[in-house]
Specification:
The protein is of the alpha+beta class. It contains 31 helices and ten strands. The strands form three sheets. Strands 1-2-3-5-4 form a five-stranded antiparallel β-sheet, covered by helices on one side. Helix 4 packs antiparallel against helix 8, helix 13 packs parallel to helix 16 and helix 25 packs antiparallel against helix 26. The N and C termini lie far apart (126 Å).
């Protein structure tokens, strides 16, 4: 009956080994006492666990009784530095005529400390720093038991310490754990019953002599402080303690810990050092690793200034710490802090640097999930940091994650009020666009790029053009690609007032020449490129000549193929000149293009020399690091004074801005449609006459003999023949000719002056109301005065111009 009761208390939810929801794996070489430490796996989710087993041939075996005490204590005592309990059960098996009882304890996955030390292989300063961190954790656990719970562990040693996957040290082996009551002389407990389980070498003098009176008069930490000293000796000597006398050998103990070590092993129980004071006062625990992990654990209690300072130093500090501890301890802490918002934006730099030390598989498991969650953050500094470092993790993102989770959050930056954030969002598309679906590219990305190509920031317009050239191969084949590229490059980029933007348009056309058929090259591309050969900017002119040569070579190839009867190229597109299939050497400063060496080569020959250096936004950065390498503008002359020559193409814009972002969701337009040319309003006859007069030479024409004029006319007729323009029906009189209506002989505008009005204003008496005398028409007088003033100003301008001539 009693046995069944004990099984019910210890067994938990399981009634047998078959019902244990865990698979027992291989055992470790060592474990505390008579326990066996196994690796294990959960049957439910496949997670790793540790399984401790203790067997006995008799249900009343003292080992089993102590083991049940350990199960009960481990289940009820909870602390970050004490092994976490998950499950337990007790199984009785019959083997022939004898029965065997086994206790199983399931805990979080851990490894014996002795095995972990061999695995890490730390040496020198890094070993001492890690040992300091581990001893600090065990000292906290012992202090919690002794000072807070008034419990005595009884056997603190190397075998009673295990290590988690995050390299945390945890205390276990609670078989002898019991309450300490110094006031009750008759008190009995596991310490009295199972003290024989403790090795003689680990017992202090009073426990070895079973002097319970002295033990009760001693402070509650006396026995465990001695055990902590034994742990320190085994740790630094690298050997298991064989005799108590070996503790006097202090050659391997660090000098900063020696004094505390001696106080822990004092022969007088009352003078032994309390573990709580050891944590607070020991110089040994003050090092970079301990301070860094401690700061991360209490991060929520720090203010923003402390956090910012700490995370800016963390990348360099991480290089000085043990690599395994950084990856298994600091990295999870940092990822958790970023995910839950307690870490500042600079922490992302440290996270990515630590992540670069992981294998690609580990990076995808430990770092990428945190990064994906950070894209939904509303913190602008976090978003900027993510975009600035996207080249470090972008290749690891899967296409599905980018299309479904990342892009929707990144796209909000296209319309952000900060020009710096808009530019970073644009640059990030070099990495993300290849992973987007055609639906996302056509339905969303192209609309945003359509708007950015008319952005107020010239650097953003330039980079938009170059981005389109680089992602052209990912656009939908057919009319969408042709329509987008030709309209974006010829209609907008080549007509931009910013010279690097025009140069980028020429470069983009050269890089995407294989996507255009011969008709588009001859009718739309070449006319627009040739116009730029007289561009005010020397770089633009140079690239325009190279582009014209390239496209003329393509046309010449088509002509040669046509002569031999091969006309297939006219409908399928013409292959570009070798060297133009690589990515554009475009105006981006913060990203490096990943790929084959051939993809990183600059365009040749059209792009040799790179007309653009890194163009960045003029807007101030959200972060402290401004964008580098400003745009290079070769022409000092203001472009407003030297307008770009108009293109002879039939369109003057590739799409309305409203089609890009503000249209309805159901619309199929993407902002890249052709539009009809805008009809310029015709000027009034008087204004047309003035404009015509402005184009005439100011100097007086030299009179020529009539015979010479006749000869010239005959030569023109012979030269132009039937294609000569017909003679104008009306002839204008010379500016110096006198007429009957001339107001002044010196007025050059008299010949084109408006005739005097032939109608008169009707008096107001013609209508209803009281009759009044007719008033002069003031509107007519004002118009006449303005005409006279305008004529005087034009006359003065022509006189000045004639003086220059």
């Amino acid at each position: 009956m009693m046995l069944r009761f004990l099984k019910g208390v210890v067994g938990g939810s399981g009634t047998g080994l078959k019902d244990l929801p865990y698979n027992i794996g291989d055992p470790y070489p060592s474990a505390w006492g008579s326990w066996t430490h196994h690796r294990g796996i959960s049957k439910d989710d496949g997670s790793a666990v540790s399984i401790f087993s203790l067997s006995g041939s008799n249900a009343q075996d003292g080992h089993l009784a102590a083991g049940r005490n350990g199960v009960k204590r481990l289940r009820t005592v909870r602390h970050p530095n004490i092994l976490s309990f998950l499950h337990s059960t007790e199984v009785e098996s019959v083997e022939g005529s004898s029965s065997r009882v086994t206790i199983y304890i399931v805990t979080e996955p851990v490894m014996p400390l002795s095995e972990k030390i061999k695995e890490l292989g730390l040496e020198g300063t890094q070993r001492d720093e890690y040992y300091a961190w581990g001893l600090n954790q065990i000292a906290k656990a012992v202090s919690f038991l002794n000072n807070d719970c008034k419990l005595v562990h009884g056997n603190v040693c190397l075998a009673s310490v295990v290590v988690t996957p995050t390299l945390d040290w945890k205390l276990h082996a609670f078989d002898v754990l019991s309450e300490f009551d110094g006031n009750n002389g008759n008190a009995t407990g596991p310490m009295l019953q199972y003290e024989w389980l403790i090795g003689t070498q680990y017992k202090p003098m009073e426990l070895a002599k079973s002097d319970w009176v002295a033990i009760r008069k001693s402070p509650p930490w006396a026995i465990d402080s001695w055990g902590l000293g034994c742990l320190i000796y085994e740790l630094f000597s690298g050997m298991k303690l064989g005799k108590t006398e070996e503790l006097r050998n202090t050659a391997s103990i660090p000098k900063s810990l020696l004094q505390d070590y001696q106080r822990l092993l004092s022969s007088m129980p009352s003078r032994r050092m309390n573990t709580a004071k050891l944590i607070e006062n020991s110089e040994y625990f003050q090092n970079k690793l301990v301070d860094t992990i401690h700061f991360m654990e209490i991060l929520t209690l720090k203010d923003s200034v402390e956090k910012d300072t700490f995370f800016r130093k963390l990348p360099n500090l991480a290089e000085q710490l043990p690599r395994q501890i950084v990856l298994k301890k600091l990295l999870p802490l940092l990822a958790s802090a970023l995910e839950f918002g307690s870490a500042a934006a600079p922490a992302l730099t440290a996270l990515l640097k630590m992540g670069s030390w992981l294998s690609p598989e580990e990076f995808s498991v430990k770092v990428l999930p945190t990064i994906v969650k950070l894209f939904s953050s509303n913190d602008r500094a976090i978003r900027v940091s993510l975009l600035q470092h996207i080249d470090q993790y972008g290749e690891s993102l899967s296409a599905q994650v980018v299309d479904e989770q990342v892009y929707t959050h990144v796209a909000t930056g296209f319309s952000d009020t900060s020009a710096f954030l808009r530019e970073l969002t644009l640059k990030s598309m070099l990495v993300l666009a290849p992973k987007l679906s055609q639906r996302t590219i056509s339905g969303s990305l192209l609309k945003y790029l359509s708007k950015l190509q008319v952005d107020e920031e010239p650097a953003i317009r330039t980079n938009t053009t170059i981005l389109l050239g680089n992602i052209a191969s990912y656009l939908n084949e057919g009319q969408t690609r042709k329509r987008v590229l030709i309209n974006a490059f010829t209609v907008r980029a080549l007509r931009d007032t910013f010279s690097p933007a025009r140069g980028a348009g020429v470069m983009a056309l050269c890089a995407t020449s294989s996507y255009y058929d011969i008709t588009e090259i001859a009718t739309r591309i070449l006319p627009n490129v040739v116009v730029l050969t007289i561009d005010p900017d020397s770089d633009v002119r140079s690239k325009s000549f190279q582009a014209a040569e390239q496209f003329l070579q393509i046309v010449k190839q088509y002509y040669e193929k046509t002569n031999v009867g091969d006309t297939a190229a006219g409908s399928t597109g013409i292959s570009s000149i070798p060297g133009n299939a690589s990515l554009l050497g475009w105006a981006m400063s913060s990203l490096t293009i990943k790929g084959k060496p051939s993809e990183q080569a600059p365009l040749t020959p059209a792009n040799s020399g790179l007309p653009l250096s890194a163009t960045t936004s003029n807007a101030s950065s959200v972060m402290d690091t401004p964008s580098t390498a400003p745009a290079r503008v070769n022409s000092i002359t203001d472009l407003a004074d030297q307008p770009v020559p108009e293109s002879p193409t039939s369109t003057d814009g590739w799409g309305e801005i409203e089609n890009g972002i503000h249209e309805e969701q159901g619309s199929d337009k993407d902002g890249w449609d052709d539009i009809e040319p805008l009809e310029e309003p015709k000027p009034s006859p008087a204004l047309a006459s003035i404009q015509a007069a402005q184009k005439r030479p100011v100097s007086q024409p030299v009179s020529q003999p009539k015979a010479q004029v006749k000869v010239a006319k005959d030569e023109d007729d012979d030269l132009w023949g039937s294609i000569a323009a017909p003679a104008p029906k009306t002839t204008t009189r010379p500016l110096n000719a006198k007429t009957a209506t001339a107001l002044d002989d010196d007025d050059p505008w008299a010949a084109i002056a408006a005739p005097p009005p032939t109608t008169r204003a009707k008096p107001l008496v013609a209508g209803r109301g009281r009759g009044k005398p007719a008033a002069p028409n003031r509107l007519v007088l004002r118009v006449l005065v303005q005409v006279v003033k305008a004529a005087d100003q034009i006359n003065l301008a022509n006189v000045v111009a004639s003086d220059h001539i």
